Amino acid sequence: MDYYLKNYTYSQLKDLLKNILAKDKSNLKEDFFNYRVDQIFNWIYKKYEDKIDNFSDLSKNFREFLKNNFEINSLKIYDTKLSKYNDSIKFLFKTSDNEYIESVLMKHPQRYTVCLSTQVGCNVRCIFCASGINGLKRNLNLAEIIDQLFLIQKYIYMREKMRITNIVYMGMGEPLFNYENLIKSLDIFTHDKAFNISNRNITVSTSGVVDKIYELAEEKFRVKLAISLHSPFENKRQKLIPLAKKYKIPQILKAAEYYFLKTKRRITIEYILLKNITDTLEDAKELVNILKNYNFKVFINLIPYNSIGNIYLDNVLLEQSDNESIIQFYNYIKKYFEVNVRWSLGRDINAACGQLRRQLINSI
Ligand code: SAH
Ligand code: SF4
Question: CATH 1.10.150.530 region(s) of the chain?
Fold first, then answer.
């Protein structure tokens, strides 16, 4: 049996209780189990309660049973950092095996978005990304993905009575390489007995794991998909994203097109702006050229690079683009596609993925 209650989706928890309890109470009806799971989900996911003793509408026996078999939290908040503009909070979590993962809460007046991690480290190893530098340690389990949202939601509910409305899978790790837990986490986040977050408000970001994009298109969730493209040129992209050697740009965009046709959700293209590497007018023109070949509605997110130290590509230092280059790039793209520059919230707290963990690991 799995130790953490949050490792079970609604239907899995029901099956588990049936298996355990039906042994001696074979006359129990379906409603009995539905009701028990409703109660448990209600305490955890609606009231953000993490002490089984406080599940006050459960019988003492049933609470004892739960306490003897399960834990609620799989993560502990190890550190929080508030950005000086007050618009984002970075959370560093510690896992039970002493790994560190991070998530960010981004506050907009109308929506609270959480950026989630799906792995400890990442084996895609993009050269500009702090999460990939030391490769992959392990996948997060379901409870650890859920707990990032749970603990942030609890934290913010206690202080501001606010609810999280949006989720982006843009923290550490490649979500499509932890596919099974990604799908189960979507089940819990969107479930009406749990967080009940609308699938329209959830974005899964991928470096381009083609076969899994097709699989995701067949799921019932119809979440938004973001593709980390970063360059329209195959050679350059392969240098930036080592995994790209396996999945080529046309294959990825074809899969994104399929995803769009299946789900009708606009595709986001993520594009990192690196000075003199990806930010020239030639890059912008080619980006427009290749995207025009596909039958999807697209939204382009330009991401100014957040430096993670002295890293070079073909002897060129990775640096953030100048404002003029960013504006030039933006103005060109704007003529063809919807586009936005994502000035990252919380730049001062190292909000780009994996940066806080890396700092901590380097300091201990
Ligand atoms: N692995 C997935 C999702 C997590 S990374 C993916 O790559 O899509 C999400 C985004 O973080 C990527 O699009 C990447 O552009 C951005 N990112 C990573 N390191 C960054 C950095 N140093 N500065 C700015 N953005 C960064
Ligand atoms: Fe992994 Fe995404 Fe970072 Fe690339 S950008 S190393 S895919 S987490």
Answer: 5-69
CA of 177 to the centre of ligand 2 (A): 11
Closest C-alpha to 300, from 313, 323, 276, 284? 284
The yes-or-no verdict on residue 350 having pLDDT over 70 is no
CA 121 to ligand 1 centroid distance, Å? 12
Pick the CATH number of 75-363 from 3.90.1720.10, 3.90.1150.10, 3.20.20.70, 3.40.1280.10: 3.20.20.70
Counting from 1 in the atom list of ligand 2, the atom nearest the Cα of 243 is: 7
Average pLDDT value for residue range 275-286: 98
Show Cβ contacts of residue 316 under 8 Å, excluding neighbours closer than 6 positions. 276, 277
Decide: 136 in ligand 1 pocket, CB within 6 A.
no
Q: What is the mean pLDDT of residues 321-326?
A: 96
Write the single-letter amino acid at 186.
Answer: L
pLDDT at residue 92 in the model: 95
Looking at domain 5-69, its CATH architecture is: Orthogonal Bundle (1.10)
Q: Catalytic: 353?
A: yes
Residues 141, 182: Cα–Cα separation, whole Å = 9
* pLDDT tier at 84, thresholds 50, 70, 90: confident
- Residue among 102, 144, 174, 270 flagged as catalytic: 102
Q: What is the pLDDT of residue 33?
A: 86
Q: Is 352 in the pocket of ligand 1 (CB under 6 A)?
A: yes
- Ligand in nearest proximity to the CA of 241: 2
Location of each CATH 3.20.20.70 domain in the chain: 75-363
What are phi and psi for residue 308, nearest 5 degrees? -120, 20
The answer, yes or no, to whether residue 358 has pLDDT greater than 70, is no
More confident residue, 18 or 176: 176
Compute the mean pLDDT over every residue in the chain, rounded to the nearest whole number. 92
User: Is the model's pTM score more than 0.90?
Assistant: yes
